[in-house]
Design a protein that fits this description.
Elements: H1 17-34, H2 40-48, H3 52-84, H4 86-106, H5 110-123, H6 127-136, H7 143-167, H8 175-194, H9 209-212, H10 214-222, H11 225-241, H12 243-256, H13 260-311, H14 315-324, H15 331-340, H16 348-378, H17 389-407, H18 410-422
Amino acid sequence: MAAPDTPLPAPAGHARLPLVFILLTVMIDSMGIGLIIPVMPDLIREVGGGTLSEAAIWGGLLTTSFAVMQFLFGPALGSLSDRIGRRPVLLVSLGFLALDYLIMAVAGTIWLLLAGRVMGGITAATQSVAAAYVADISRPEQKAARFGLVGAAFGIGFVIGPLLGGLLAGFGTRAPFYAAAGLAAANMVFGFFVLPETLKPENRRAFQWRRANPLGALLALNALTEVRRPLLIFFVYSIAFWVYPSVWAFYTRASFGWDPAMVGLSLAGFGIALAGVQGGLIRVILRAFGDRGTVLYGLAFYTVVFGVFAFLTNGTAALILTPISALGAVVTPALQGIMSRAVPDNAQGELQGVLASVNALSMVFSPLLMTQVFAAFTAPDGPVWFPGAPFLLSMALMLLCLAIHLAGSGPRVEASASRQKGTR
């Protein structure tokens, strides 16, 4: 079902500032992912020593700790926002995010870096609350496109994070974290003055621990048959997609000899393209193909892209291909739109919390898996020198997503979503 290209029903002026705040929050959350990527090899070896392959393994553990916290706390924060509202959860979490960046800035041991990633994973789990806020202010037929705006904000953060990490690396490996702490604190102050509460009293519900944990929330949503297949695709797709932040800095250094500035530049190009695709182009694709066709297009596109990256040996070609690869980044908002229309209005926070946890669970598996594969195929005693091996694995996972998607009965899912819309 295509989403119309119509603006949010808000008047001009400061009434639009809450949406600006939400998009800034998502952007700052995504900065926490991209910020550390360009400096991670040098930062880890600075505090712990070791070879590049050993640093890659530690990098996977740091990313995994971040993801585990998102997995555990995504549904809790989403369900909490269904009870007390979106505003308090968002503002308090931003304050702790600023504190996390300061911890990362002064960390002198790998264990303090690990503690910072744990706190960062908890605070960044507010992406589920931000998405629930967008669901609150969007009509059912607008949701896929609106989630595209959230994805665009994520892309912009993915631009700013690597740029700060790469460009400010010249002032030391800690400088980017001080800058990010200032941004998080400033956004918290901004939100305090402009963010109204959007959760209506009649849509609030009691906080229940059995639904606020990842397993309980997932089981509750699993009762909705329309959610099962897209949720499985979302999980496998996320594992494949997280190959970028998991091994990009290591892969490009091993394959092309890139320094942190070049890594940051390449990721900035990807993030700019991602923002353009999810903030604008996705509306065109949704109108042309509908949600199901948009998912099919994105999965097929990334199957090809990951296959090319696996065997690429030219750094210039990689730099050109990186932003082009963002043209397939329409899968997540299309899947979110399908699932959001399948759940009631008083469960939007729970749904977005589950999606945050599923995404986080993929972040648990993907960095460990991808960095171990990279280390195995780049170690001096490895079977063969093949730094692109993680991308070959991601290509295989995309093929699995295609098989699951094509096996589904698309017309019934679309019709069910239409009935859900008609009953609200």
